[in-house]
Amino acid sequence: MSRLSVTRTISAPVEVVFGYVDDYHNLTRFMKDLSTWEPVGSQVHGKGAVFKVGMKAGPMTIESTVEVTDWAENASIGFVSRKGFKQSGTWSFARSGSGSAATLDVEYEFPGGFAGKIAARAAEPIMRGNLERSVTELKAQTERLAAARKPAEKPAAASTAAPAAAKAAKPAAARTAKSGTARKR
User: Fold this and answer.
1) CB atoms within 10 A of CB 160
2) Nearest residue to 139 (alpha-carbon basis) of 90, 96, 107, 108
3) Do 92 and 18 touch, CB atoms closer than 8 A?
4) What is the pTM (predicted TM-score) of this model?
């Protein structure tokens, strides 16, 4: 089997990056040449989830059925093919400074014995480039997602703080007069 590994540091919380990869709807958005990643059955994530996978290879689509074999929230998602193109891999996630690090380790094997090994060696630069572009695209998409969430959170915090600040700024006499507890002189 051939093995490839790609790691990127991402300026987004590990929860955002893991959640994005864990949502099967997103995989075809950032994985280069991945045309299909659809659940087979009702389980859509976590250990035991099974997916129909299609990967473009030139004019062809290579199909397989992949099962999630490892799932640890905000830490890892492991998978192995059960039918079709022989592959296995693991997404690993870790905190890194104020962001996270995402690593994709993949092992794959072309059919055909010795000829398959030669094909795998010839295809390795293309496969590596596709994985690097995929993890780089994951970085771009999750950084945009994290940046979009930050401004949305600030106004919510400001809106709850604003009434409290306004109330604190009112003179004490005005507050007591309004409440009916002002003393008459």
Assistant:
1) 9
2) 96
3) no
4) 0.74
The helix (run of H) or strand (run of E) holding residue 4 is strand 2-10
173 CB-contact burial (10 Å; exposed 0-12 / middle 13-18 / buried 19+): exposed
Return the structure tokens found at 117: 């090994």
- pLDDT tens for 113-149 read 666 566 656 666 667 778 899 999 999 999 999 999 8
CATH number at 2-148: 3.30.530.20
User: What is the token pair recorded at 101?
Assistant: 């690090």
Measured between alpha carbons, how far is 173 from 152 in angstroms, rounded to an integer? 36
Would the CA dihedral through 100, 94, 124, 50 be positive or negative?
A: negative
Contact 29, 118 (CB under 8 A): no
Q: Tell me the three state secondary structure of residue 157.
A: helix
Tokens standing for residue 16: 């955002």
pLDDT in tens, 168-179: 444 444 434 444
Q: Tell me which DSSP letter residue 91 carries.
A: E
Task: Give the contacts of 56 (CB within 8 A, at least 6 positions apart).
Answer: 33, 34, 35, 62
Of 3, 4, 6, nearest to 133 (Cα)? 6
Spell out the domain ranges in the chain: 2-148
